[in-house]
Q: What sequence folds into this?
């Protein structure tokens, strides 16, 4: 996920216009069992005319899903609407979600505490305000952009200079700079880099395997099924799937068997509890977006070939898993220099997967270039595809602004869908802020998607709210269905913790208590429960 002003980008575009036992390895899970209450019911048909409402639902099991016109259907032709959450921070480790290590603003406070400068630093931090809010939303710099970490730190230095002597300020920043740049990010590159630099490649992979086994367990899938969700979207980074150094772009792909075993274990849990999974490549070799730097995929044949190899490997391992609702080929390919470059890359992936005889649904994301600018599947010879986008209205600060944008989307999205005759999947969305209007916004967008029978997955299932931001600035968000810390949190510090300490702290995520954001959950469950049995 990336801080993209989707509303602005959208306006610019539209107005210009198997054998489940074949697993390699055993992954331990949680053995707690209870009646899940899982419900995979869905509308019979999606209406063909904008403004109609989706009809009643019917029972649907864990069968192979396919596209039929604008609907996703099961093997018996029953329409299936997938509704769930993203397992963010799991197989693509965005540290802003998990609070592994510290943001620059949180580290600034931690260093102040360690140097016993709280009385000097705290009032300044409170006065200048945060550099990011709601976990990862940049604060406006007053000129249409956001305040970067460097600019914020310079502001902190200047303001501290007004209340403290030069020696104190210099000593403070000398210590603070030991921990910069922060690895707090929405890319998994910083955490891979820091762990590899400090502990080596094998320890890096072992530590992250420990973390992954703690962050998502069987009990999580059981809980989600019990709430009535029938889908998890699983963001995956190529670094998770491969071994070798990740300090630079790859020159070859050596598969990480532990990672594939973990995915199979997750799918086993999903199958057990009646929850479909969308396997999503959040970042491919070279990058389809700017998460970890410039997107090199579209200009570099080697990375295109590697990405084809990656999806051929995914298909070889998961082609017989009916619990996989779809492969999401390239999440947010916003780095594509043009729609044609985006679509040509997708075409390579679609054809490679189909050549292997794999008929899974394939999710094609618009890269925020407009749903009306999506390719005509017939022109490329694509079959069994689902079109997708993500909706985050970063600049919205009230319900009317949010609603107005969604209302604008309505015509363009629906017209484009009818023209291309494909199902839609809103793979990621959120109200972002912990304010009444934001929950009203989530309710509005969920009802909007439900009107047309579109599938969706909320961002995200878990999000550990930063206690430092809450303490200094009262900052909270609505990112996670589970997000509020209960009790103490021994936060991993990848700059100073020993390998064994990091391992222990990673393992402790398995017992981390996160309180449910009941307001958010109630909004989502109201939609799930509104469908008749």
A:
């Amino acid at each position: 996920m990336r801080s993209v002003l989707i509303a602005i980008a959208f306006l610019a575009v539209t107005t210009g216009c198997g054998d489940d036992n074949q697993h390699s390895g055993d992954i331990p899970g949680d053995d707690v069992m209870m009646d899940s209450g899982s419900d995979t019911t869905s509308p019979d048909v999606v209406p063909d005319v904008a403004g109609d409402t989706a009809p009643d639902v019917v029972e649907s099991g864990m069968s192979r899903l396919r596209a039929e016109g604008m609907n996703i259907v099961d093997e018996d032709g029953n329409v299936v609407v997938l509704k769930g959450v993203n397992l963010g921070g799991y197989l693509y480790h965005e540290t802003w979600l998990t609070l592994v290590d510290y943001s620059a603003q949180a580290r600034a406070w931690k260093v102040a505490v360690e140097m016993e400068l709280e009385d000097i630093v705290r009032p300044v931090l409170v006065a200048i305000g945060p550099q990011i809010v709601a976990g990862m939303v940049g604060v406006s710099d007053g000129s249409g952009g956001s305040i970067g970490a460097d600019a914020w730190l310079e502001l902190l230095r200047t303001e501290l200079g007004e209340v403290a002597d030069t020696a104190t300020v210099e000593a403070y920043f000398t210590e603070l700079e030991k921990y910069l740049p922060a690895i707090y990010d929405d890319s998994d590159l910083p955490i891979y880099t820091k762990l590899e630099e400090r502990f080596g490649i094998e320890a890096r992979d072992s530590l992250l395997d420990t973390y992954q086994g703690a962050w998502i367990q069987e009990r999580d899938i059981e809980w989600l099924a019990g709430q009535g969700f029938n889908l998890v979207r699983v963001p995956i980074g190529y670094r998770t799937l491969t071994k070798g150094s990740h300090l630079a772009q790859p020159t070859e792909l050596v598969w990480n068997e532990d990672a594939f075993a973990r995915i199979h274990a997750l799918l086993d849990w999903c199958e057990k509890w009646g929850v479909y999974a969308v396997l999503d490549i959040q970042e491919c070799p070279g990058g389809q977006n700017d998460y970890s730097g410039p997107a090199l995929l579209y200009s570099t044949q080697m990375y295109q070939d590697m990405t084809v190899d990656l999806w051929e490997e995914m298909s070889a391992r998961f082609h017989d898993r009916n619990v996989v609702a779809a492969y999401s080929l390239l999440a947010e390919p916003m780095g594509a220099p043009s729609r044609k470059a985006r679509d040509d890359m997708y075409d390579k992936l679609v054809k490679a997967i189909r050549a292997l005889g794999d008929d899974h649904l394939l999710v094609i994301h618009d890269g925020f270039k407009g749903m009306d600018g999506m390719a005509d599947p017939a022109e490329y010879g694509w079959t069994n595809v689902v079109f997708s986008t993500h909706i985050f209205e970063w600049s919205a600060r009230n319900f009317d602004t949010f609603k107005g944008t969604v209302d604008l989307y309505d015509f363009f999205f629906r017209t484009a869908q009818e023209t291309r005759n494909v199902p839609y999947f809103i793979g990621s969305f959120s109200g972002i802020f912990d304010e009444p209007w934001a929950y009203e916004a989530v309710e509005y967008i969920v009802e909007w998607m439900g009107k047309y029978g579109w599938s969706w997955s909320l961002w995200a299932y878990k999000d550990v709210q930063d206690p430092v931001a809450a303490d200094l600035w009262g900052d909270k968000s609505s990112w996670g269905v589970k997000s509020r810390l209960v009790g103490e949190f021994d936060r991993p510090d990848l700059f100073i913790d020993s390998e064994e300490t990091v391992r222990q702290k990673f393992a402790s995520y398995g017992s981390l208590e996160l309180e449910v954001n009941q307001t958010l959950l109630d909004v989502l469950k109201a939609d799930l429960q509104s469908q008749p049995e």
